[in-house]
Design a protein that fits this description.
The chain has eleven helices and nine strands. It is globular and about 60 Å long. It is an alpha/beta fold. Strands 1-2-9-6-5-3-4 form a seven-stranded mixed beta sheet, sandwiched between helices. Bound molecules: nicotinamide-adenine-dinucleotide and glycine. The site of nicotinamide-adenine-dinucleotide has 29 residues, from helix 5, helix 6, helix 7 and helix 11.
């Protein structure tokens, strides 16, 4: 039970599922224990990840695989994989290996992998067990929590998707050690967003500790992730399907999506950067409108 000592735990309580978020250093090494705790009858696991994500995280997950059969899919990198072709690749693989609802799909990667894999899990046999292991700061504080899944079509972003909560979320802070600074700043954008919409104290704390987050100081990062996930869990509990309050989490995102569309969802501007600019525009507009 030593995972309790080394990881912080938060509960997300929604009308469709109640599930924990585990946050800690080297949390991936606790995957097997948590799998047995939450998903006793799982015999097959499919890990979906992408090319640029260091292989050591995938091999760390597969360690000590007694009584469990592991399969993995390594997809190309980038927003472009949030589309039909890759959705079918995941669901075909599940069919080929005879996965049942008691088996489990794991998303190991950033928000792109999480959104695509979560969607595939939600429609395969009308819903199979699903675990999020987010490896970017943005996915650790935002996309892995709350159950929004989806892909894009030629008309726009995230237009096809489901609300489908994971069975648990495992946040390993050590995975950030390989994350480029640009992606750290993108994640910081969503952290800053929580402070601006919900928590002035957190905003002041970020003013002092922001630089340490970008420098990957483990204790500060762990605190920032915990506080961000707590805010997200609170909002999602009150409004899982975005009928009203949850829209607050889209602060800056309307402008952000417009900026991303103009840039063709390329690396010219990444999601978190667009959110930073979007929040500035939204704040200015709000100010102008009184
Ligand atoms: P991403 O998934 O594209 O990851 C960014 C880059 O980092 C990729 O190149 C990836 O390969 C690389 N990477 C990931 N982990 C790494 C690691 N540990 N070390 C080194 N490189 C690593 O981008 P993102 O910012 O994580 O997610 C953006 C996506 O999330 C968008 O599609 C957005 O729409 C979606 N999103 C969804 C929600 C939601 O609630 N479902 C919320 C916010 C954003
Ligand atoms: N990222 C916005 C939401 O989860 O609602």
């Amino acid at each position: 039970k030593n995972y309790r000592k080394t990881m912080k735990t938060l509960i997300v309580n929604t009308s469709s599922k109640r599930y924990p978020i585990y946050i800690g250093q080297n949390a991936i090494s606790k995957f097997k224990i948590l799998l047995r705790k939450h998903l006793k009858n799982t015999k097959n696991i499919l890990i979906v990840t992408s090319k640029n994500i260091p292989k050591k995280y995938l091999s760390g997950l597969k360690k000590n695989s007694k009584n469990i059969k592991y399969h993995s899919i390594i997809l190309p990198d980038g927003e472009k994989i949030k589309q039909n072709q890759y959705l079918i690749k995941i669901t075909d693989t599940l069919s080929k290996h005879n996965f049942g609802r008691n088996d489990c799909v794991v998303a190991l990667g950033g928000g792109v992998i999480g959104d695509l894999t979560g969607f595939a899990s939600s429609i395969f046999k009308r819903g199979i067990n699903f675990v999020q292991i987010p490896t970017t700061l943005l996915s650790q504080v935002d996309s892995s929590v709350g159950g929004k899944t989806g892909i894009n079509n030629k008309f726009g972003k995230n237009l096809i998707g489901t609300f489908f909560q994971p069975n648990f979320v495992l946040i390993d802070i050590n995975t950030l050690s390989t994350l480029p600074k640009r992606e750290m700043i993108a994640g910081f954008a969503e952290i800053l967003k929580y402070s601006l919409i919900l928590d002035k104290k957190f905003f002041n704390w970020l003013n002092i500790n922001g630089e340490k987050i970008l420098k990957k100081s483990p204790n500060i990062i762990s605190d920032a992730i915990y506080r961000s996930c707590k805010h997200k869990a609170h909002v999602v509990k009150k409004d899982e399907k975005e009928k009203n309050l949850r829209a607050i989490l889209n602060f800056g995102h309307t402008f952000a999506h417009a900026i991303e569309t103009i840039c063709g969802y390329s690396k010219k501007i990444i999601h978190g950067e667009a959110v930073l600019i979007g929040m500035i525009i939204a704040a200015r507009l709000s100010n102008q409108m009184g």
